[in-house]
């Protein structure tokens, strides 16, 4: 077996299986709808990664046939469909597979207990603020870690923790907070 070229048979196999696998995946994704590749929570992210890994295995491993690869892709998409169907209809299942968004920073205060529980550092929050165009913490009303792990930055419009609760955001009870720099609201 040559490390650089092992004949045309594996190359042709990769081209044929790759094309057919890709077409199968596109058809499955179109049939299953937009939700399949969304990353609304960690479970969705895992399914997206698993689909890519399965496609790669089908393309590169001679021990995985096209039918096996297509079956694995179909199974992952069906499991995603069943899981989201259950989550929409049963709150207990939705709570089992999804976490709640959590408030990490609110009106100039870092909520250290929530940050520790979610394993997010102050530097990561500051980086997210900068990525969203905030020059300083005073420019931000709230930072929330979403169910899939991204940080949402809310710049204006949130006046109280009660409003955050209405939005479904979890507040860390008795959170030890540290005052950021003096809060000034822009008009």
List the helices and strands and how they pair.
Blueprint: H1 8-32, H2 42-60, H3 66-89, H4 91-97, E1 102-106, E2 109-111, H5 112-118, H6 122-131, E3 142-145, E4 151-154, H7 161-166, E5 177-179
Antiparallel strand pairs: 1-2, 1-3, 2-5, 3-4
Helix pairs in contact: 1-2, 1-3, 2-3, 3-4
Domain YetF-like N-terminal transmembrane: 20-85
Transmembrane segments: 12-29, 41-60, 66-88
Protein name: DUF421 domain-containing protein
Keywords:
disordered C terminus, 2 domains, alpha+beta, CRO Repressor, 7 helices, about 190 residues, five-stranded antiparallel sheet
Our estimate of the beta-strand percent is 5-15%
In total, the number of strands is 5
Binned, the helix content reads: 40-55%
Largest beta sheet: what is the strand line-up?
A: 4-3-1-2-5
Largest sheet: 5 strands, antiparallel
* Estimated structural class: alpha+beta
Question: What is the count of DSSP helices, taking H or I runs of 4+ residues?
Answer: 7
What is the molecular shape? elongated
Summed over residues and divided by their number, the pLDDT gives a mean of: 84
In the predicted model, the low-confidence regions spanning at least 5 consecutive residues are 174-187
Radius of gyration, taken over Cα atoms and rounded to an integer in Å: 23 Å
**End-to-end distance, in Å?**
70 Å
Number of domains: 2
- Could you spell the SSE succession in H and E letters? HHHHEEHHEEHE
Membrane topology: Multi-pass membrane protein
Transmembrane segments: 12-29, 41-60, 66-88
Region (Disordered): 168-187
Domain YetF C-terminal: 90-157
């Amino acid at each position: 077996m040559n490390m650089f070229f092992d004949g045309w048979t594996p190359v042709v196999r990769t081209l044929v299986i790759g094309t057919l696998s890709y077409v199968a995946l596109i058809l499955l994704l179109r049939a299953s709808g937009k939700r399949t590749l969304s990353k609304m929570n960690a479970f969705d992210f895992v399914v997206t990664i698993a689909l890519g890994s399965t496609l790669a295995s089908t393309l590169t491993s001679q021990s995985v046939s096209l039918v096996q690869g297509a079956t694995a892709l179909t199974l992952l998409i069906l499991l995603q469909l069943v899981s989201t169907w259950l989550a929409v209809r049963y709150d207990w299942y939705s709570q089992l597979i999804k976490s709640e968004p959590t408030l990490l920073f609110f009106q100039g205060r870092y909520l250290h207990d929530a940050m520790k529980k979610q394993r997010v550092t102050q530097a990561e929050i500051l980086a997210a603020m900068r990525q969203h165009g905030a020059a300083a913490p005073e420019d931000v009303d709230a930072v929330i870690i979403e169910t899939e792990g991204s940080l949402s930055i809310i710049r204006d419009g949130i006046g109280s923790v009660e409003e955050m609760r209405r939005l479904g955001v979890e507040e860390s009870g008795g959170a030890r907070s540290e005052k950021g720099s003096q809060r000034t609201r822009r008009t």
